[in-house]
Specification:
By secondary structure, the protein is an alpha+beta fold. The protein is about 20% helix and about 25% strand. It has a single domain, classed as 4-Layer Sandwich (Double-stranded beta-helix). It has helices at about 25-40, 50-60, 130-135, 140-145, 215-230, and strands at about 1-5, 10-15, 40-45, 60-65, 80-85, 110-115, 125-130, 150, 185, 190, 200, 205-210, 235-240, 245-250, 255, 265-275. Bound molecules: succinic acid. Succinic acid (SIN) binds next to strand 15 and strand 16.
């Protein structure tokens, strides 16, 4: 297999693999290393079925059920991300976020497969939190290293829930859960256990406030951090094609599904995986 970097900071396109065949131990190791090094890996023309997708996720960790968007009984860990041509709502994941960072144990990463994509648009953006940390001004580094951030599940809770017409996948996601409003504290800075690289662990969808500060006091600092993490230099933008597979590190990246394809259908299948605990990434 070959890894071709996509940007100067992160992301790689992997070629020379057929993931529908049995994946041997040396390829598994290479894929794990590729994810550690590049944080987002893209493999085209794979056309995986649900079992093959689950087997791929297992290389990186145990498939994890999304408590707010579970799949079918036979594949509870598989979230179907569908926007129909006639829908005029928001999209699932349509804002910068890391998946489920408001849980005690957020998933470690995800495998996303494209089933049907619009003729244009429907791209996904990623941002490297390692790049964002490396380029962060020193006063921010001093302020955040060793501090915690409170995360809450705003879209799924009660207190901060968006208006119903802006909610995507209404029928297949759990909403109005007061438990999602509970603050969960995670380190603002994580260290990758394999590469030793530091990265920010904040995102505008779920991060609420900085340890020792109120929501109001935190707001200007968080806004500046969100602006910084989404700078074009820290991002990559993926154009999907059917059959494509993308695997991302959910502790070291944020992502954003772009909602610019009204009138066209888009269907994706996602399996998140867990491995170890977030605490192992603490300094
Ligand atoms: C997500 O996992 O947040 C959605 C990604 C996408 O549909 O592009």
């Amino acid at each position: 297999m070959k890894c071709n970097p996509i940007t100067g900071f992160f992301g790689a396109e992997v070629t020379g693999l057929d993931l529908r065949k049995k994946i041997d131990t040396s390829v598994k190791k290479q894929l794990q290393n590729a994810l550690s090094e590049h944080l987002v890996i893209v493999i085209r023309e794979q056309w995986l079925d649900a079992d093959q997708q689950r087997a791929l996720a297992k290389i990186f960790g145990e498939p994890a059920v999304n408590p707010y968007a579970p799949g079918l009984p036979a594949y509870p860990e598989m979230t179907h991300i569908i926007k129909e041509a006639k829908e005029r709502t928001g999209v699932f994941g349509g804002g910068w976020h890391t998946d489920l960072s408001f849980l005690d144990h957020p998933p470690r990463g995800s495998v996303l497969c494209a089933i049907e994509v619009p003729p244009f648009g429907g791209d996904t953006m990623f941002s490297s939190q390692h790049a964002a940390w490396d380029t962060l001004p020193e006063p921010f580094k001093i302020m955040l290293d060793g501090r915690k951030i409170a995360h809450v599940g705003k879209p799924y809770g009660v207190k901060w829930a968006p208006p119903i017409e802006e909610q995507s996948m209404k029928g297949s996601t759990k909403r109005g859960d007061p438990e999602a409003d509970r603050e969960r504290w995670h380190p603002a800075v994580l260290t990758h256990p394999v590469t030793g690289k530091k990265g920010l662990y904040i995102n505008p969808t779920y991060a609420l406030r900085i340890e020792g500060m109120s929501e109001e006091m935190s707001r200007p600092f968080l806004e500046e951090l969100f602006r910084h993490t989404s700078l074009p230099e820290h991002c990559l933008r993926l154009r999907w094609s059917p059959g494509m597979v993308v695997i991302w590190d959910n502790y070291a990246t944020q992502h954003y599904a772009i909602n610019d394809y009204h009138g066209f259908r888009r269907e994706m299948r996602r399996v998140a995986f867990k491995s170890g605990r977030l605490e192992e990434w603490s300094n």
